[in-house]
Amino acid sequence: MERFYKKSTADFYTLVFLIFLSITTIVLDYKYNQITYIRSIINDLIVYPIDKLSNLPRSFMNELIRESSNIEDLERQLRVLEKKNISLKIQLQELNSLKDENTRLRKISKASSILSQKQTIAKVINNTASPNKRVVAIDKGEKHGIYIGQNVIGVNGLVGQIIDKAFLSSKVILITDPSHTIPSVVNRTGENILVSGHETAGILIVQYAEMSVDIVEGDIISTSGIAGRFKSKIPIGIVTKKMSNRDKKFSEIEIKPFEKIGQMSELILIWDYKPKVKTDE
């Protein structure tokens, strides 16, 4: 009890002293202007630093929250920009692809105009349109005026001819099919030969060529126009091999087509020539 009494008395005298000090300060501030200067000094040297120190944790937290918010905004903007960048890259690839395709089709059209005054570019939609023959399907049919036997070429030479047609599509038998025979001519000598497909893809052969036939490696072979199946002077390929088979009494001749038969995405149909005889399916 005595301890509590002593503590209360000390607090009371402290309170009285602080009240007296406050009243004295107010009176001095009212009567003397110098007190304002003293108060300013006390504020700058004592109050301001204490206030600044007391606000540091709050300022630090606010700055941290603001920085975190800014980082999240930047990351969000970065994700949006990355998506836009990917989209723009895809569009650029599509534009480059369309540009390359346009250039290729112009080249095809220009090259095919040498062989025919009228031609149509068709896209290959199926490279295995027949189970037992080398046949491809194209996206042109009766609607586009396609006819049976129509000659089909590429930029560099003969590819095949139409053997079947539907309203919106047609089938082309390739010159590399073993059952397909082309009346041809050796450009260097003018000698007529028969060129056929072979079981090995990408190879043409000359059937039943006499051993005395004047053909050498490097000779260019073209269509002869005989039998009216193909327009004459369409390039076919180049002779890559000639071997004489004395047992069978004929020469074995191989020809490499100018076109990559069976690997083409666009074919050219020519219109200024109609075969006299339909091709066998």
Which descriptors would you attach to this protein?
about 280 residues; alpha+beta; 2 domains; 6-stranded antiparallel barrel; 12 strands; about 25% strand
Q: Low-confidence stretches at least 5 residues in length (pLDDT < 50)?
A: none
Largest sheet: 6 strands, antiparallel, barrel
Number of helices: 2
The CATH class of the largest domain is identified as Mainly Beta
Q: In order across it, which strands form the biggest sheet?
A: 1-2-5-4-3-12
The helix fraction, in percent, is 25-40%
The share of residues in extended strands comes to 25-35%
The count of strands amounts to: 12
**CATH architecture level-2 label of the largest domain:** Beta Barrel
CATH superfamily (homologous) name of the largest domain: Rod shape-determining protein MreC, domain 1
Number of domains: 2
Structural class: alpha+beta
Indicate the radius of gyration in whole angstroms.
48 Å
By CATH, the topology of the largest domain is Thrombin, subunit H
Give the termini distance in whole angstroms: 126 Å
Layout: helices, strands, pairs:
Blueprint: H1 2-31, H2 34-112, E1 119-126, E2 135-138, E3 151-153, E4 158-165, E5 170-174, E6 181-186, E7 192-197, E8 204-209, E9 220-223, E10 235-245, E11 250-257, E12 266-270
Antiparallel strand pairs: 1-2, 1-12, 2-5, 3-4, 3-12, 4-5, 6-7, 6-9, 7-8, 8-11, 9-10, 10-11
Summarize the structure.
Helices cover 39% and strands 26% of the residues.
Would you mind describing this structure in some detail?
The chain is of the alpha+beta class. The protein has two domains: 2-65, no CATH class; 119-270, Rod shape-determining protein MreC, domain 1 (Thrombin, subunit H), CATH 2.40.10.340. The chain is 39% helix and 26% strand. The chain has helices spanning 2-31, 34-112, and strands at 119-126, 135-138, 151-153, 158-165, 170-174, 181-186, 192-197, 204-209, 220-223, 235-245, 250-257, 266-270. Strands 1-2-5-4-3-12 form a six-stranded antiparallel beta barrel. A hairpin with a 4-residue loop joins strand 4 and strand 5. The N and C termini lie far apart (126 Å). The mean pLDDT is 80.
